[in-house]
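In response to reviewer comment 3 from the previous cycle, which asked for concrete evidence that the modeling workflow produces usable outputs, we include below a single protein chain processed end to end. The sequence was submitted unchanged, and the resulting structure tokens are shown without manual editing.
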Amino acid sequence: MWNPLEHWVYEARGSIDQHKVALMTVLKRLCMTGASAAVALAGVALLLNQAVAEPVNASVAMPASTQFAALAAPARPQASLPAQPGSDRGPRPPEVLPPVQAPPRALPLPAAPAPLIRGALPAAASARNSVVRGFPSTIVSFPDKTVPVFTAVSPGEGAMEFTAEGITPLTPEQALAHFQQSLLKVGFRSDVAPTGQSIVLVRGKDQISVSAAVTGTGATRFSLLGRFHTGPGK
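The workflow returned the following structure tokens.
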């Protein structure tokens, strides 16, 4: 016999079973969606952790076109600010080297002095106890109170030689100083350092040597030998 109550209970149970199946399906989908979201969140966290630990290289991250443009662009010069008054940090002027100077030229040789003897040369002659004729006494003067012992002149080719001996009351040093000072006035100079008993005086090609020594009587005897040229180049 058909019982309506049992039929309703049977249908109710079937409906409940269908709802259970649908609910389980929904729950499974929710679980799968949650797992996927958890995996995605874990991946994002891992990427963020790597980004913090290792900074990204700018040259890798920059596109190739941007890198080429950066290399091709010329560097702009940096403008320098003018130096402030009282500050030593301003731009320094370029160092300027001194010009190269030419080596100094050698000084020209001094001109030869004019000859002391002009005109015809005297003939060869000598004299005792007097001054011979032609002796250059205006150039070579004897000390005061000199007693001539011997004098002589001898002409040569473009020159004249002369000699003299005399006795003076001066000391040997004083006698040599007299000849040195008198001949200095006409341009002679000492060629050799005085030794105390002799001197050598020169003027261009002209030359005079004088020696002096003490005699047995305490006086000084001097001997003089000279050579004067008649031309500067001879």
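Confidence is low (pLDDT under 50) at residues 55-62. We consider this sufficient to address the reviewer's concern, and the full set will be provided in the supplementary archive.
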